[in-house]
Amino acid sequence: MGKDVIVACDFASAAQTFAFLDRFTEEKPFVKIGMELFYAEGPSIVRELKARGHKIFLDLKLHDIPNTVKKSMAVLSRLDVDICNLHAGGTIPMMQAALEGLTREDGTRPLLIAVTQLTSTDQETMERDLMIHAPIAEVVMHYAKNAKDAGLDGVVCSPLEAQKVHELCGSDFLTVTPGVRFADGDVGDQKRVMTPAQAKEIGSDYIVVGRPITAAEDPVAAYRRCLREFVD
Ligand code: C5P
User: Fold this and answer.
1) 4-230 has which CATH code?
2) How confident is residue 200, by pLDDT bands cut at 50, 70 and 90?
């Protein structure tokens, strides 16, 4: 898979999701399904979107003992998602078990990427609540390296971290970056943002874009603008 724009379908129901996606008559965007939609609708939302021809990043961020993660990943693999993820904080044995679970009998599997430290965690909360005392930027890179060592395909990271991740883990280690905004758009609650063109410049492999597309007056035009800036 090459560079692409992944549309974050942060909707509460299948009906809202399909109403949104029905506006795309020419393209079949790569979509991200998160916990809210998956827990509301279950695996049928994945099957339905696959049947409609969409690629799917299933953003469920697994984190449990290796055996449980392995078995759960086997279920997601049978659902034929294209990308799924877990928390690198679950440690290398958990990430290795996840890969085993994902791998089908014929050797194929969905891409597996890791969340390092959530962007909602800052230095203070990491030290206070998790008793991790290294600088957060170092922790993020350490977790990325663990993911690489475990055999994963990449990480979810801020566009600002993508370059460093590539330097540390290699240019073929995927960086999937949310926090994307148009130069003339609303930033909303995102703190550190980049435009699609800047994300391309610094080497992001996939950008995850939600509200700049889902809340746009013309979502199809906004999606095309992302593609023009990031992919073309
Ligand atoms: O609407 P917006 O473009 O901000 O949506 C970004 C998407 O990426 C959301 O689904 C959000 O949960 C997700 N995300 C993020 N920051 C992270 C990890 C995931 O914004 N660090």
Assistant:
1) 3.20.20.70
2) very high
